[in-house]
Specification:
There is one protein chain. A four-stranded mixed beta sheet has the order 1-2-3-4. The protein has a three-stranded mixed beta sheet with strand order 5-6-7. The N and C termini lie close together (9 Å). 36% of the residues lie in helices and 22% in strands. The chain has one domain (7-136): Roll (CBS-domain). It is globular, with a radius of gyration of 16 Å. It is α/β, with parallel strands linked by helices. Strand 6 (111-115) and strand 7 form a beta hairpin.
Length: 138
């Protein structure tokens, strides 16, 4: 197995990020449209939070008989900043994959925003990225 491979080699670089004022219904549409589970939340290119599909699903839990318009109304009764994980742990693009794997294992995270030296958002690394990397090693 390769040693000291930076996370920049496996992270998703073409990512979607949203500003803090984005409606939750719009965030949900992005998650569904792009078949993703996590979206970084930014202010002026700086990561201030992360929102997951599970965060949004919790809001609509038990509302199985509602149409999408009714669900969107429920989602939009909340503000993104009230639902997202604030000040998430981030890694730099130079953090090695082993260290990221340890964070996923110990912290039970499923994604981590990846930032550059100026704390600007460069990408996101997920457990799926990690699994795909491990598969490629065999």
């Amino acid at each position: 197995m390769k040693q000291r491979v930076p996370v920049s080699q496996i992270m998703t670089k073409a990512l979607i990020a949203v500003p803090t004022n984005k409606k939750l219904s719009e965030v949900n549409k992005l998650l569904v449209e792009y078949n993703i589970r996590h979206i970084p939340v930014i202010e002026a290119e700086t990561v201030v939070g992360i929102i997951s599909s599970n965060d949004i699903l919790k809001i609509g839990y038990g509302a199985t008989d509602l149409d999408q318009g009714a669900l969107d109304a429920i989602y939009d009764s909340y503000k993104l900043v009230d639902v997202m994980t604030k000040n998430p742990l981030v890694v730099t693009d130079e953090t090695n994959i082993k260290d990221v794997a340890e964070l996923f294992s110990k912290q039970q995270f499923h994604s981590l925003p990846v930032v550059g030296k100026d704390n600007d958002l460069l990408g996101i690394v997920t457990t799926t990225d990690m699994i795909n990397y491990l598969i490629a090693q065999y």
